[in-house]
Design a protein that fits this description.
Elements (H helix, E strand, L loop, with lengths): L13 E2 L4 H9 L2 H8 L2 E2 L20 E3 L16 E3 L2 H10 L52 H4 L21 E8 L6 H4 L13 H4 L11 H6 L6 E5 L11 H8 L2 E6 L4 H9 L3 E5 L4 H4 L5 E4 L2 H6 L4 E6 L4 E6 L4 H9 L2 H10 L1
Parallel strand pairs: 1-2, 3-4, 5-6, 6-7, 7-8
Antiparallel strand pairs: 5-9, 8-11, 9-10, 10-11
Helix pairs in contact: 8-9, 12-13
Length: 355
């Protein structure tokens, strides 16, 4: 669509290749040259603008994006105005300098038909196989296939890279205050935001946890620190954890002591991530029970470990503050139950290895 044309001078036309493989094929097919000649700014392969790492929109201006998310502030600017659209719409708008129906180009060009390369470039040279050995027959360091290589490798960590925190197994009783109650459709961006201010701490869980639920309640982190050891709970509405499959939206709350989330329903991928890091997802059997719990109430789950071990699908939660109880179910598969019991999926694999 842009071949032989120039984008409008008032438009920033940004292209983010999704992977190095895509970038190599764009180059080999000659598409990259056409994009550059049309005025495109080519960025390195990765998420980039989709998660607010660069390409923040100008203040007071619209931004058209072909990425899958446009939650408020996700682009890196709180006052953003991001519209999701097709690549054809984005390209036509870049050429005209205003939001444009790509069918308006019908008088100038035929509909652009695309085709996959006949022999796509598949470059495995930068992929390293997992190490699990004492060294191969040639003695190449770091490319072994026995049992000792990985233990000999020294991990070089800067001051902002921390090991994952230890996550304890599920106890038989959970008790703690509800430190936060949220509504429907809370996204993983609201649980833990993206962007240049936050993502540099992806390998530093204590630091990144400071941003947990910041968009909803900027006092949460300070309050949660007091209950990090003893634990606390979060209550959510429908579709809790929608949006990006961001594991840090489960790992950071877990680090701060969240033991369970009680919700009307969960987004599927976030539910899996909660199980991955040992947070128990529970669903209200009576939706009105959500309304009966208030922030600050103390909840208690007796015999929860035994219940999961025996395959029970429903549990009773006591509200010690209001002297009432609620029936909840869990949507966990047998494997997810194992993760919760072990404290995390990493603990589960480590326990199996030790056995």
């Amino acid at each position: 669509m842009v071949a032989g044309r120039q984008v409008h001078p008032a438009v920033s036309f940004d292209v983010n290749p999704s992977s190095r493989q895509v970038l190599e094929n764009l180059t080999a097919e000659g598409h990259l040259l056409r994009l550059i000649q049309a005025g495109a700014r080519i960025h390195q392969a990765g998420c980039n603008g989709c998660i607010g790492m660069g390409q923040a929109p100008a203040t007071g201006r619209n931004s058209l994006r072909t990425v899958p998310r446009n939650f408020p502030g996700r682009s890196g600017a709180r006052e953003d105005s991001v519209y999701l659209c097709s690549p054809e719409t984005a390209t036509a708008s870049a050429l005209f300098g205003r939001i444009t129906d790509p069918r308006d180009l019908a008088k100038e060009m035929d509909y652009p038909r695309t085709r996959d390369p006949e022999e796509p470039i598949l470059n495995p040279e930068m992929l390293l196989a997992p190490m699990h050995g004492d060294g191969d027959e040639d003695g190449d360091e770091g490319k072994g296939d026995g049992d000792g290589d990985s233990e000999r490798i020294e991990l070089l960590k800067g001051p902002n890279i921390h090991s994952l925190p230890e996550l304890e197994p599920l106890p038989d009783t959970l008790e703690g205050p509800v430190l936060l109650k949220v509504g429907d459709d809370v996204s993983t961006d609201e649980i833990l935001p993206a962007g240049t201010r936050v993502l540099p701490y992806r390998s530093n869980i204590p630091a990144i946890s400071r941003f947990t639920f910041e968009a909803i309640d900027d006092t949460y982190w300070e309050r949660a620190r007091e209950f990090r050891s003893d634990g606390h709970l979060v209550v959510g509405g429908r579709n809790y954890g929608q949006g990006s499959s961001r594991e840090h939206a489960a790992l950071a709350p877990r680090y701060l002591g969240v033991k369970a989330v009680l919700a009307r329903s969960f987004a599927r991928i976030h539910q899996q991530n909660l199980a991955n890091f040992g947070i128990l997802p529970l669903v209200f059997q009576e939706e009105e029970d959500y309304d009966r719990i208030e922030e600050g109430d103390t909840l208690r789950l007796d015999g929860i470990r035994e219940a999961l071990e025996e395959g029970a699908e429903e549990v009773r939660v006591q509200n010690l503050t209001r002297e009432e109880d609620y029936l909840l179910s869990h949507p966990l598969s047998p494997r997810q139950r194992e993760m919760i019991l072990a404290g995390s999926v990493l603990n589960l694999f480590r326990d199996r290895k030790d056995d």
